[in-house]
UniProtKB/TrEMBL annotation:
GO terms for molecular function: 4 iron, 4 sulfur cluster binding; class I DNA-(apurinic or apyrimidinic site) endonuclease activity; DNA binding; DNA N-glycosylase activity; metal ion binding. The gene is pdg. NCBIfam families: nth. It comes from Engelhardtia mirabilis. This is Endonuclease III. PROSITE patterns: ENDONUCLEASE_III_2. It catalyses: 2'-deoxyribonucleotide-(2'-deoxyribose 5'-phosphate)-2'-deoxyribonucleotide-DNA = a 3'-end 2'-deoxyribonucleotide-(2,3-dehydro-2,3-deoxyribose 5'-phosphate)-DNA + a 5'-end 5'-phospho-2'-deoxyribonucleoside-DNA + H(+). DNA repair enzyme that has both DNA N-glycosylase activity and AP-lyase activity. The DNA N-glycosylase activity releases various damaged pyrimidines from DNA by cleaving the N-glycosidic bond, leaving an AP (apurinic/apyrimidinic) site. The AP-lyase activity cleaves the phosphodiester bond 3' to the AP site by a beta-elimination, leaving a 3'-terminal unsaturated sugar and a product with a terminal 5'-phosphate. Transmembrane segments: none annotated. SMART domains: ENDO3c. Residues 211-233 are annotated as: Disordered.
Length: 233
């Protein structure tokens, strides 16, 4: 099966399973989304959603955030991890939004990437989910599933993003990237995954991929006859 055909079948499955794609991070506007996405680096969405109410109760705008010190921000966001770096980035990017953008979050990836602590993936999430601009944010989880499903053989998330953008229609990017995340959490974990029971891996993953995952201890696939242990006589 060609990659394009595989992508069409995968999209049909994802659309059926996840017709709605709510944004996982709680937010009220582009600024609170930007802060939440920044906090989600190496942290679960669930933990971020537990932390942000206290932070946004103190500061839900750039002007309010700069009135806090980085140390005050750090104490609030400490459960999210990497709090020294994240608190400094939040404080400085809030200053830059006031200085350079009139207190508003810019709507382009290029401008967002100039802000401290904002990389390509974070910028892509913000433009997609806050402004509706077609983007395909790829994190390590989407990178893993794209490889597992045979949609990309890329060694890095940047190339995986380019591959997926070629396979899925532009108007579906914002939804598909969330659908893949939801599917990964519910059906396609990194470890202990039974490939033959997965609605997508059961037909999309190649035998070579299944064997590679078994060798690495990350998945459980259907064993071929030659791979079965021989009985002792």
């Amino acid at each position: 099966m060609k990659r394009a055909e595989k992508a069409q079948r995968i999209q049909a499955i994802l659309d059926e399973l996840y017709p709605e794609t709510p944004v996982p991070l709680d937010h009220t506007d582009a600024y609170t989304l930007l802060i939440a996405v920044l906090l989600s680096a190496q942290c679960t969405d669930e933990r971020v959603n537990q932390v942000t109410p206290a932070l946004f109760a103190r500061a839900a705008t750039p002007a309010a955030m700069v009135r806090l010190t980085p140390e005050e921000i750090r104490e609030i966001i400490k459960p999210c991890g990497l709090s020294p770096q994240k608190s400094r980035a939040i404080h400085r990017l809030s200053e830059m939004l006031l200085e350079d953008h009139g207190g508003q979050v810019p709507g382009s990836i290029e401008e967002l990437e100039r802000l401290p602590g904002v990389g390509h993936k974070t910028a892509s999430v913000v433009v997609a989910q806050a402004f509706g601009v077609p983007a395909f944010p790829v994190d390590t989880h989407i990178h893993r599933l794209a490889a597992r499903w045979g949609l990309s053989a890329a060694r890095n998330v940047e190339q995986t993003e380019r591959d997926l953008k070629q396979l899925f229609p532009r108007e579906t990017w914002n939804a598909v990237h969330l659908q893949i995340i939801f599917f990964g959490r519910e059906h396609c974990p990194a470890r202990g995954h039974v490939l033959e029971d997965c609605p997508i891996c059961s037909w999309a993953a190649s035998k070579a991929r299944a064997q590679a995952e078994r060798r690495a201890g990350t998945g459980k696939g259907v064993e071929t006859r030659s791979a079965r242990p021989r009985s002792r006589r």
